[in-house]
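Margin note from the TA: students keep mixing up input and output lines. Inputs are the sequences; the output is the structure of the whole complex. Example:
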Amino acid sequence: MSPQHRITRRTRRSALRSKSPRSECLKVRTAERQKRPKASESRDLRPSTFRPSTPEGPATAIWLLVLLALALPALGIERFPPPDFSGGHEIPETVVPASQARTQAWLDVAMLALGLGLASWISLRLRSRKGLVILSIAALAYFGFWRRGCVCAIGSVQNVALGLADPGYAVPLAVIAFFSLPLIVALMWGRGFCAGVCPHGAIQELVLIKPLKVPHWLDQPLRLLPWIYLSLALLLATTGGLFIICKYDPFVGIFRMGGPRGMLLLGGGLLVLSMFVGRPYCRWLCPFGALLGLLSRVSRFRPSVTPDHCSRCRLCESACPYGAIHTPTTDDSSRDADARPRPLALVVLIPLAALLFGWLGGKVGLASVAWHPTGELASQVAMAEAGTLPEPAPDEITAWRQAGADRAALSTAIAVLERRSLFLGRLFGAGFGVAAALHLVRVRFPRATADYVTDPADCVSCARCFTACPYERLRRGETVQLPVEGGGRA
Amino acid sequence: MAEKDGISRREVLSGGLRGLGLLGIGTATGALATRDRSDDEVWQIDPDACIQCGLCATECVLEISAVKTVHSHGMCGYCELCTGYFEPDPVNLDEGAENQLCPTGAIERTYVEHPYYEYRIIPDLCVGCGKCVKGCNMFGNGSLYLQVNPDRCVDCNRCAIASACPAEAFRLVPRPTPYLLRGKEGT
Amino acid sequence: MTEDPSSPDPQRRKVLRAALWGGGLAGAGAVAGITAKRLASDPPAPKRPPLGPEFTYDVTRFQTTDPSLIQWREVTRFQTGLERPRNLAVAKDGSILVCGDGGIRRFDAEGGELDASSIEGSVHAVTELPDGRILAALSGRVVVFGNDGRPLAEWPLPDVLPVSLAVSEKRTYLADANGRVVRVLDFEGRTLDVIGQRDPEQGVEGFVVPSPYFCVRLAPDGLLRIANPGKHRIEAWTLDGSFELGWGRPSYAVDGFCGCCNPVSFALLPDGGFVTGEKGLPRVKTYDCHGTFTGLVAGPEAFPDYVKAAQAGTPKAASAGIYVAVDAGGRVLILDAIGGTVRIMRRKEDTDG
């Protein structure tokens, strides 16, 4: 709908609109002089006022200052008034919706604490597999599908690491809680988080139908992978704020029912594997699980298979899908023949591994600069200077040129980044070395145990072994034939 | 291993390590929790750094991105030929789909008075691709720009768009004032 | 695992275990090495597939021009030395005045620096009065300099944003972008008249000025030429404020004015034609006295920095125009605000040998 063009008296009168014989454009035109009103004194600038949808008096003043401070660098264009509407049209305000309340985060923390408490109580006191299953389903529903996997404890290690490395980064309190609560529980009561709170563990638990026994020689080396993952994730988080745990989480695509195709395939594949192999993600990939396992090695209380007496019937060992119950080493726990080389091995291996993997980590750290946005920009700038940059130019270099193309600042930034990445790479590499050494020693020189007990690090408190133990069934009031004492030695 | 009064050496060691662990977690937690923070923060786009690369529409973890175009009417020229609304060289200056820039038809054009038209964004249709923003910024006044809608954003731990943004245009802003506006509101 | 340690079987098992452990750790090292190599060479994980072309704003087809349309050649270019140049003018003696943030610079006809005056603020337009005084227009005021560069007076103009100046024998014509009018001042700063005041009852549409670009020139035929950027026209008005005619059409094609508000600047050629400067698509074009397109002075290819800045769509680009002026010898001067240079162009047929 185009409005009618109002033809004025003046325009009708001017004959120059048609191509007149006057080809000479330098002739002077005369026209009737019109009385014109005096120039208006001051322009009525119509300010468009901003109104947040939740009016807060005192906050508005602070907000104005904040926005002013934030917008000052952007000044450089004249802020130009909008047209003056003769019909008195009101220019609309920019109404902005308010952000969501913070209560959701605190609810998550409360649910986490509740879940941890319940999981620990069920696995240690109640000793009920059914209880844990119900808790797992609830945790999967809430933390997995309802909250869509975010905020999660596994990813929180990155935030905490970045917070410790970068003094300018304030870690949200809920994330700190998600990091520390499961670790504290692991220190005191074992891996309750894994048992019934973590949605990743829950989903793997619930699809497990026929656990295959993974041989010891395969299982133990694979348990080094989470440490590699953890070290790499911490390195990338602290140097560049790249949160790869979140990005490459295989199950979050299932929780969100959507995501990058590759990740969905990986998640689906892992889930299928989980039907036959117990908790593959938890055992061989989860970086937080590596930490939990390390801490739960010194936990005060841990699930014990038998409520009172172990007769070495080995029923529990085959019931555990995760290989977390080991054959006892000796009849007499007071003799710990294999334990003597242990301290020596630790003293030798730990520094050696720290040095070796620290050096290796430094190399990885330097290489990770290429993944950092600044490193990517630097490589693009180098290509541009060599004339090999493909057209159209990538967005990063376009944005950099737009912002002034400060070469010197980029060089400084890269130098700082490289130094930092080298140091952090060495640090986390050494950390991995220490963890690997501890792991190796633990496996090569296991603790002496007289009975079948749960492995302090690997046991995820799933409570499957309880129902296998005849003494447990006796405790629950079932009639059971107790096995012969001492039968079934390894 | 000698047993001493019912407490083994191992238990002492374990207890010591446990205590150390608790202390460590407590220290880290305390150091981080007491760090100076004015308020809880949310992610927002700095419109003057944004280069309208289109990643806002694809990188958000939500199916329909939480990033939408915002219009600061006070900055708008109210042009009949709006370069954020019309394709370059439109067939006709009307609301026909073949003339409109927005692929989802999320801009509403209403006549005010000659020759001024008002343009409003329909948030439910906007996907945050930034096509209109680029048109407005390249040829016009820059009154259209992208902003994260705080009521749709789920406040991820680490915003996926922020990580992918080639211009590093994402910043953390206080939750009560979650916008970085242009125009009279921003000055 | 208490077995008889002396039997050969456990011995072999120990060796096997040790070998496996060694292999496992070596594997870990290998994983680390491969990761390092991959990190260094491969790009990071691909982002989600990008949106289709219908979600992309693409004007690249307008950013190339037919070379046969370009009829002018660059003779020389010089740096203005101003961080953010905004406008330019040619003085009677042929010297070139360039104004911008921080002041005015004067150059001779070949670009040699002559002198400079500094002023607090952004100078949006500059011109020379018949008596040799220089006018520098800033937001809300006009500063008057003597020919030697000494500040003489200041004319306060509250709420006025002057972006262009033209001078006749007795009057200054000042294009006020805030008010969307052209003010007529005497040489002492008094506002005598206003041209183009919007008055729907009288049928005066006025000027549509969506952004602070509003150019006014005095043509030798005695009419004012005023750009009406919102209507993509250059209009002719009488000195006492009646509209006569206008020409120009909105189009991204080479013969029209692109975007929503163009031309941002124009100047008059000695033969009565026009040379125009646009923003968005950086183009400098010539038209004849009737408004028929006659050719290009410089196309977008001549302004690569400008095109890159505009593609990034940040305000720095949105606020930069291409300003033009013509000197007595018919050379076209182009002010490139992003590059900070002035280019002097001559017609190809004048320079060819």
